[in-house]
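Morning. Coffee machine broken again, so started the prediction first thing and wrote up yesterday's gels while waiting. Chain of 227 residues, entered below exactly as on the submission form.
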Amino acid sequence: MKKGIDAPLVPIIFAACGLVGLIPAWASHHWYNFIFPLLMLVLALTYVHTSCSGKYTIIRETVDSLPLPRTSRVLDLGTGHGAVLLEVAKKLRQPGKVVGIDLWQAADQSGNSLAATEQNIAAAGVGAVATVKTADMTKLPFDSASFDYVFASLAIHNVKPRGRRELALREALRVLKPAGYLIIIDLEHVGEYERYLRGRCQEVSVKRTGINGLWGWLPTRVLIAKK
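Came back before lunch.
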């Protein structure tokens, strides 16, 4: 599977600050001057680990934890290279289907493109149950109550401002069937999502993900809501 670094500018900034900071720290001959640059390098390493490995573990464990029938209809918001889409597709058989949508912005994930994700689908051999298209999560081109599950992994936080994030949540609930599940994996605004969904869903739970979900100092949390 072709992968990309999420928000690639962030670890570059961490690493650059760390490397540049080592120069005056070395010249000073004082150990405490190494604290900041070394911290920046550690943040860069944890970020890259989560982006290249940790998030895939979180996604796999989350998908495995769900009661996902083989004939489910699933929507993946902000699919990127298809980490969620491909994991879900492994569980499905026709007429089950998973659809991934994205605006394919490279600032959100390096090498992000419709063609790259289509190649990942073909390489995984799941083309019979998986497809992708260009669409905006705040204005979904699907009928109401179309999907059994809606996923959004590291995607909704890219929608700004808050009012548009609420619109994305509203759209996700609109296309979700009654008693369907909305699963959000994110590092920002999870409390905001939780407050919006409580009262609109039967159940809402949130859990942390440990070292595999650390984006620098920001932890990943998994929110699961039953409509």
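The beta strands are 73-77, 97-102, 130-134, 147-153, 176-186, 203-208, 214-215, 218-219, 221-226. Going to sketch it on the whiteboard this afternoon.
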